[in-house]
Amino acid sequence: MDALECIFTRRSIRRYLDVPIEFDKIATIIEAGARAPNAGDIQNWRFIVVTNEQLIKSLYNVCLQQPCVYNAKIVIVICSLPEEGEKFYGVRGKRLYSIQNCAASAENMLLAAHALGLGANWVGAFDEDKVCEIFDIPADARPQVIITLGYSDELPQPKIVKELAFITFFNRYGNKTEHAHTVLRDWSQEWSRQGKIIDYDVHRRAKHAGKKLKEYFVKVKDKTKEKK
To answer: Is pTM, for the whole model, over 0.90?
Structure first.
């Protein structure tokens, strides 16, 4: 499974088989999390690997009783160290970068789990104080994400993704064209060579440029035939 296939096929799995997970796979998932991009490479995260069944059941009660937690074979609690972020980047490091770092780590873990044939789910709804109490998390650490793991016991539907033309802008917020493919392909290079200025905010101009480009290729094709 290559990287793109892993990204495109990963789904949230909330039901797990009663099958133990090999520890080498857990170690690989943790290492994947530790290799995530993070601000200044400060790596201000800590991972709690929960293998004890009773602790997992206790966690279920403080996670809004989500079935994925109750059924999980192993749980990973990702904690941030906000003060380390603040030390290097001030308030922004404490309030934003520390969260972003853990989020990037969590995504790496989810992808690694999928690549290893495991199901996983990102849990963000939980009683933070209770989680700290269960796992003796100190005051300078903060639980950010809970990852549930297990061999999948369900076949999820393919993910429905919003159209790229709807969620993508060019050069500034709000600039988009209905025919996004004319921008995302190499045609933009041809427009640039001809010295045309493209205003992505105006659909009429985009259509006009596409029409001119089509005419240009027709002329080139006709000249090629004449030479033959």
So the answer is: no
